[in-house]
Amino acid sequence: MPHTHRIHFPFFALLIALFASACAGGESNPSGQAPDGAATPHADATDRVAALPAAMQEGLAAHGGLDTWQSFPALQFDFNRAGGTETQHIDLWTRRTHWIGDGFTLGYDGDSVWVSPSEEAFFGNPRFYNGLHFYFFQSPFVLADEGTVHEDLGEQVIDGKTYHAVKVTYEAGVGESPKDSYIAHFDPDTGLMKVLLYTVTFNSGEPSDRYSALEYRDYQEVDGLMVPARYFGRTWNAEERTLGEERYEMNFTNVDFLTEPWPDSMFSPPQM
């Protein structure tokens, strides 16, 4: 008889998790779990933004504003994975998730990840995959979460083009991988984030200077916010400061920010 399989882990765990090779050709991506103090309807975006480097402030403004993003309690979007289309629903204030795929439903109810009808119906490790697309899809907004630390790197050149760069790290104890780091590169003309470099320390627990890259080529405006229409996973040549091989492509469609929260029942495992 089919059953729902629950995988328990701490609520603020897994900020960074392994992105299995079926989608990313061996890359690693965040899982999108909320760090302690993540955006809530009571968060003061004005004070938060004022404390950020100017390049990050300008980038958030170009993407529609952190205050606007935090005003929405819920998000849904479709994304492609290995040629298929899947749908994800997100509670933006708690980072609970509900994911509909081919032959499975996956969710995070604030306490554990569950898979229905069984874990065997899922293509990989649900604990690693849950929420990962959301995190890169909703950068740079999530890069301004409470618990993030920002360093202005000034002007940085990639493939001969100059960007305004901001390094993002995490306070001790935020998520299971507080030693991960990101470098967001904002186009000086538009303010949009065009390249995101990231490291993964989930397995080693030690800081790393080995970065991978995401190239954000196309944006779409949805409910006053600029969000990716597609991005590409790229290799990163740090010595030459160039983007290398295209590892994978992610496309996002049917994006909608909602003014009413999802019902709590959406994130609970189905009753069998």
What would you note in describing this structure?
- The chain is mainly beta and 272 residues long.
- It has a single domain (5-267), classed as outer membrane lipoprotein receptor (LolB), chain A (Clam), CATH 2.50.20.
- Helix content is 13%, strand content 42%.
- The chain has helices spanning 21-24, 45-50, 54-62, 66-71, 126-129, 132-137, and strands spanning 5-8, 16-18, 28-30, 74-81, 84-91, 97-101, 104-108, 112-116, 148-158, 161-170, 182-186, 193-198, 212-222, 225-237, 242-258.
- A 13-stranded antiparallel β-sheet has the order 1-8-7-6-5-4-15-14-13-12-11-10-9.
- The longest helix is centred in the first third of the chain and has 9 residues, at 54-62.
- The protein starts with a strand and ends in a 14-residue tail after the last strand.
- Mean pLDDT is 81; it is low at 1-39 and 201-206.
